[in-house]
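My main concern about presentation is that the manuscript never shows what a single data entry looks like. For the editor and my fellow referees, an illustration may be useful. For illustration, here is how one protein appears when written out as sequence plus structure tokens:

***
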Amino acid sequence: MLGCRSKSVPGNEDSTSVLSPKPFDSSIVHGQILSSVTCKDDTNFNYVLFLPSKYSLHGKYPVLFLFDPHANGIIPVKKYKSIADSLSLILIASNNSQNGQDPGVSQQIFEKLFSDAAARFAINQSEIYTCGLSGGARVAVLLAMQNAFVTGAIGCGAGFPSENLPNRAFAYVGIAGTQDFNYPEMLQLDSLLNQTYFPHVMLYFNGKHEWPPADVLYKSLQYILLQKQVITQNIFAQDSLKLLQLMHTSQWLDAYQLASNMLHVYTNKSTWMTLRMNDIANNPYYNSDSRDFKSLVQEEKIREALFANSFTSRELSWWQNEITNLRVLANTRAVTGESAKRLINYISMLGYIYTDNALKSGMPDAAAHYLQIYQFDDSQNPDVYYLSAVLAISHGQTSRALSLLQQSAALGLTDIQRLLQESAFASLLQQPQYQQVVQTVEQNIQK
């Protein structure tokens, strides 16, 4: 079992009330994605819905609430529809929740979604889970901390909303790409939770700061949904075989992480798991790899601090040299290469933040300089050209702005709400090129 989890309905400590689930809504189609379902008691809130193909009004189904950092609920639902169907899991993804919102707003959005789901669908109110990416990951954990009926949270690409650990146990799975600039944060969180014996699992995949592949989320859901009462021997056998394979091929760091996860999940196998962890921990090759890895991560943090402190002061040539050197390292052996890729992605994140802030602060010259760094570092990022379009508008360059927006859309821009609400583009709304950009972005979301 993945730790202790309360199955009580919300009490005085929670602001969300459990509504009577009858009569359920029989008009909703099953096995298909509905991209905009409006909450019946408040039309300001809407969500993306997926009811599994075997859904029945007479059943009770677990629910996974999803929080995308840009309020694009369709993205995770499309990505995880198949695995949700295989697990008979309802998906509800907010089209309102996004990065930068006050915690109180996040709680309000969740209250609206949960109340609507409890009133309209055949949900199992003891199987309520949250999941989010980036800032949405912190929202997912926050909601599990604040609502006792949320029995599990999956955080992708970011850790907890604060340094304070939850005062109640719930199943937690953290997920991060090995090239994610928040990867070191997840490692640190894993270490902290191990020290405090908080029930958790950490999963890593080959990728950046993004929603994880479907198979990785499926694994996290297996740990949360299927390890409740009785250990599923087949799953334990799969993990055990994988662990032995990692040990046999001397992948000691991965082996230790898997063993740590298994120790938290398979509590009735703790003796066997403790022996395996001791086997790994006492291996001199593991200790050597572990020391090297910790040293590398520490050096990575030092470089991050240097880059953050240098973004407003260093010339473009300095950044070009640093980024070029990182690209060379990115092609070296796995551990060093992954660290270099994370630093490249960290610079990209800095580029976005500094450019966006400069534009909002009316500092076009600074924004232009930051964009040069940003584009050199991450030339295929659609946000580079989106922000360049905002800058072009500030200089009265309408045609250039439209061209840059088309480039942004062609590279995969999906933040439709921001595009439609961007005050800088008010003069472009009736332009055919702008309307084509909107259509392309909408198509990107559906991919």
In short: Confidence is low (pLDDT under 50) at residues 1-21.
